[in-house]
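2024-03-11 09:14:02 DEBUG pipeline.ingest accepted 1 chain
2024-03-11 09:14:02 DEBUG pipeline.ingest length=381
2024-03-11 09:14:03 DEBUG pipeline.predict start
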Amino acid sequence: MKIRSITTGFRLDCPVSLKKIARFAAFTLKAKQVFERAGYEVQTVRLTTQPWSAYLHYVSGKRLAGEVSAIEQTCIENGINFVNLGTVEQPGLIRSIPSLIATTKGLSLSATIALRKIGILDGSIEEAARAMKSISSMTKHGYGNFRFAAIANCPPHIPFYPASYHTGAPCFSIALESSDLIVRAFAGGGDLAAASRTLQRIMTSSLKRIERIALHIERKQRVRFCGIDTSPAPSLKKSESLVRAFEELLNERFGAPGTLSIARMITRVLRSIPVKKCGYCGLMLPVLEDHGLAHAFSEKRVTLDRLLTLSSVCGTGLDCVPLPGSISIRRLQVILQDVATLAVALDKPLSARLFPVPGKQAGQRTNFRSPYLMDCRLIDV
């Protein structure tokens, strides 16, 4: 198991204080050192703020791009390569997102398309779809969509990007890469009940230790620990693929009958672990971030409909899904509508990161050449 990210959230004011950014960057790096001394690999350290409409509402166009670039540059200079400026729901602000993504390297943003108290935000869905299409054409291979998501019913303090945003007093949260623990728990197969008990034992033991270290940091640094997102972000390694874990229990290919039951069982265990929790706390199935999922998608054993069905019992929604570059805005819009509808109907957090790949059609392979993503064959949607 690795720590995918230590994510520190805090509020920025108008005008933006670059010194404040530097201060929380220093805290996050100290927290990283503590975990590394305890033997953990910490893959990334990240900062996240409240929705940027709260402190950048007074600028637009080139001035907005300048302010955002200054924030990103301050983060980089202080050892933080990833920063999230939170989420916005206003259609006019969502229209600004493609240019912000295109002119930065480590900036993440999201558009809110559904809220618990309000429901589905149709105008935001349309603009989020337009943003995905624009980002596709404005960034190489459409890769900028890795840093943009449409989110529905998502709470604050998710440590995973790009759905992260902050509220309240400064705090930090932990994101994990723990698919290897699920592979270990399901090794050798067995029945669902026995696998559930084994996973509960392994995850509880591992996460309790992380919680103890995080609470120690909270006491020493006086920055609130808001929890662990128990979601098991997958690995690009074939040996640690979530698909491998599923197939140990199924004794069949991923997607066969029984896949839904295993997904539900994993999420139930993740949500029952007795640690302080935040974020999604559910099974993640990001197509391009898991070796086995990418292959299953290429072979059409995993489709959008199948992923939506699995989302009804697990975590994030449609995550890192590659699409033909010719997909229309209208088609993207109805896909996002389905994600928002499911989130509202089930009262759960879901998000969508969709990758229209310019110049690529169904049947062709992606060519991201990214250290964070697998390549796979596109399918019709």
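2024-03-11 09:14:41 DEBUG pipeline.report The chain has a mean pLDDT of 95.
2024-03-11 09:14:41 DEBUG pipeline.predict end
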